Fold this sequence. Notes:
This protein is mainly α. The chain has 4 helices and no strands. Helix 1 (9-29) packs across helix 2 (31-49). The chain binds adenosine-5'-triphosphate (ATP). Residues 30, 32, 78, 85, 88-89, 92-93, 96-97, 100 line the site of adenosine-5'-triphosphate. The chain crosses the membrane at residues 33-51, 57-77, 98-118.
Amino acid sequence: xxxxxxxxxxxxxxxxxxxxxGLKFLFLNEPNAKIHLLIxxxxxxxxxxxxxxxxxxxxxxxxxxxVISAEMINTAIEKMADVVSPEKNAKIGLIKDIAxxxxxxxxxxxxxxxxxxxx
Length: 119
Ligand SMILES: Nc1ncnc2c1ncn2[C@@H]1O[C@H](COP(=O)(O)OP(=O)(O)OP(=O)(O)O)[C@@H](O)[C@H]1O
């Protein structure tokens, strides 16, 4: 089966808009994402203040990207789980716990990177 896809520039621009909508939703509605955004701003200010090197900037930006991407995927999984099974379900609970664990893992790595660079 062949699925027709719109390859036009306008269609690509539209998908960009949908992705922006997702980002906006995250930072306006998810408390954890707001905290991550605040920490990101603090890290960027600290990066300028301590005049970190290019390679250190790359590591910090990678860590920030990792945490925020994980947060977004976690939120998407949570929203999907709530649609698939709005009632209590042990498996859904475990799926949400694993997705949240992924975010925690990225946060621990980001904190370690921050400590290595700033301390
Ligand atoms: N439908 C469900 N069935 C069973 N357990 C659930 C269910 N929904 C949530 N839980 C349990 O509650 C926890 C929190 O789920 P919830 O969807 O409320 O996330 P949250 O507290 O909003 O997370 P975050 O703060 O990361 O946005 C889950 O990790 C899971 O352990």
